[in-house]
Please model this.
Amino acid sequence: METETNSSDYISSVIPGWFSEISPMWPGEAHSLKVEKILFQGKSDYQNVMVFQSSTYGKVLVLDGVIQLTERDECAYQEMITHLPLCSIVNPKKVLVIGGGDGGVLREVARHSSVEQIDICEIDKMVVDVSKKFFPDVAIGYEDPRVTLRVGDGVAFLKAVPEGTYDAIIVDSSDPIGPAQELFEKPFFESVAKALRPGGVVSTQAESIWLHMNIIEDIVANCRQIFKGSVNYAWTTVPTYPSGMIGFMLCSTEGPPVDFKHPVNPIDVDDSQRKSKPLKFYNSELHTAAFCLPSFAKKVIDSGAE
Amino acid sequence: METETNSSDYISSVIPGWFSEISPMWPGEAHSLKVEKILFQGKSDYQNVMVFQSSTYGKVLVLDGVIQLTERDECAYQEMITHLPLCSIVNPKKVLVIGGGDGGVLREVARHSSVEQIDICEIDKMVVDVSKKFFPDVAIGYEDPRVTLRVGDGVAFLKAVPEGTYDAIIVDSSDPIGPAQELFEKPFFESVAKALRPGGVVSTQAESIWLHMNIIEDIVANCRQIFKGSVNYAWTTVPTYPSGMIGFMLCSTEGPPVDFKHPVNPIDVDDSQRKSKPLKFYNSELHTAAFCLPSFAKKVIDSGAE
Model:
């Protein structure tokens, strides 16, 4: 699977010795990190995979030239995409993660003692293996005994899930160019809704309001048709993501109402008996704040609301 | 004042045709914007000044190699640094802006109909002139008849201000390397406190929690000694600032208490008779949300609280 590739395929160098993230998804701008050492380069069946040691952000995981996580700021994304849905319902028991092969979302799900079953469906085994090797503090999520890993296509996996199986589904995808494209489309959201119990919740990576209002508008419109409980957009700061932020769609299915803006299952105070490290980023105040949008985004996102 | 300078002084080497922001303030990372055309380059008594047309962020103002504003995202910074303080007190009448030579903060202050006097002290006339020429939608702030511009040193200006003059002071500075250094030091904050009326408010640019917790910790400690009303930290997303965000110190002097987290002077609903364009970014919900901090920052910032 792994092949030798010329490093110039990966280090699209704007600055010699630096990794620059250049993509048609964010034309005309690029974020660059200084590279100390390239630790891994491979090509899986799905994408190019690279890990490098950066000089100031720790180790960095890159898929198809796009930064997925850095050790320095991964806490923001992993904690928010996980606890925004799981702290919004009482006693989540069965949780499904689509994507998220690095294991960081698993690590966060595992903080919830009510959870009995954590399934993950990641399409790319190389991402799992590379994370276990180079990001032990992230991939530690796999060590929880409640976790079952399926390597395969999340879309196909979801279709086969019996109706109403999960309390929560977390879609930790890359951008809608490449292997994750279907995870932004309507049939996928329909499968998600079907796999959730009544009043179940989903959290999906939903791009940046500064860069992709058009994508977000489409996702919101799709979600409003499919999730009859509630449909919300939240966001968080992540310095190494384009525009320095990332958003999430938080939706619930018809059933017991879910008010995402007011968490009912707080996780702020860490159980002292727990082995895991304390939360670095998420807290209940920030949970509520994450749903407050700048006016230019609020206008577009609210415009489709009934 | 204006001198011819080799463009290589500014375009700190990248793919030809891109501007990269490289600074010891954020080692190991750089944000780059694609340059369509350099519109202005000059060297004032204080700093290098550049304006370029970017391919996707509109026109960009750069001082000493650091992006100060882009047409695409300037609304976030200007609206938040201005309305966080002015919406937190009833009937602000006299407002002082230190720095802010581009005029964007003036534009935002002018939205408040209670304001009778807007003084601005900017050290660098070239910034004012360049903004008026290239950023008319920002420098429009100067056209308000309540505005008086002083070109000079903000530190010296403040020392001469009679005690208790202003309801609000907004310190719109660049980073604490270069001409703005003194604006981050204790004697300056003492002058600010003296120039404010009892229960008056100050808003100052206060860097990023991802990059400069050590600077922020010092600023917070200084402010706690000097501002006996309240001391708070807020933040906002700004894609073209390092780490994609920027923070503000919001403090009040001893006197009528100011609860910054609950705005008492909302400006959401635009007065239809007003000539100015509607707010793009700020709203009351976002005002309150801006004070909610990630746990790693909250821990440090709250630790000095009485």
About this structure: Chain B touches chain A through 51 residues (CB under 8 Å). Chain B has two domains: 11-70, 73-302. Residues 11-70 of chain B form a domain with the Spermidine Synthase; Chain: A, domain 2 fold (CATH 2.30.140.10). Residues 122 and 283 of chain B are 28 Å apart (CA to CA).
